[in-house]
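Hi U.,

Before I forget, here's the chain from the pilot set. I'm dumping it here mostly so it's searchable later in email.
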Amino acid sequence: MTDPFTPEKRSAVMRAVKGRDTTPELAVRRILRAAGIGYRLGGRGLPGRPDLVMQGRRVAIFVHGCFWHGHDCARGARAPKANADYWTAKIGRNRARDEAAAAALEAAGWRVVTVWECGIRAPGFADRLVAAVRDQAAAVSISAASSD
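Structure:
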């Protein structure tokens, strides 16, 4: 299947994909703020640059898009038809980078909470997120399939 866009238009479309202040990230921030949980943005100096950081709690939150980070949900399992080898390799590198960052943070004494895009619309998501941040348990991954 060929790309319906010209190379210039495709480049413009890909440039418009945001890396921060995404809709899922803004939803997570709203939930935490409503629960009275403070956070900092960006995670500069930490492995993987988490989206949200709670220094006092030693909690790092990553908000992952299912497609871009290779989640095992329907959206994440979707395989691009155009340039499939490139995208398969890129998503594989993203997953490896995410795992390495989480391992490095955990080794440094941080708790890692990974929020998947598909989980945000799931019933009870806000309660699970707040509990994951306030809980002193180990790393947590919140997706539509999780029942925590």
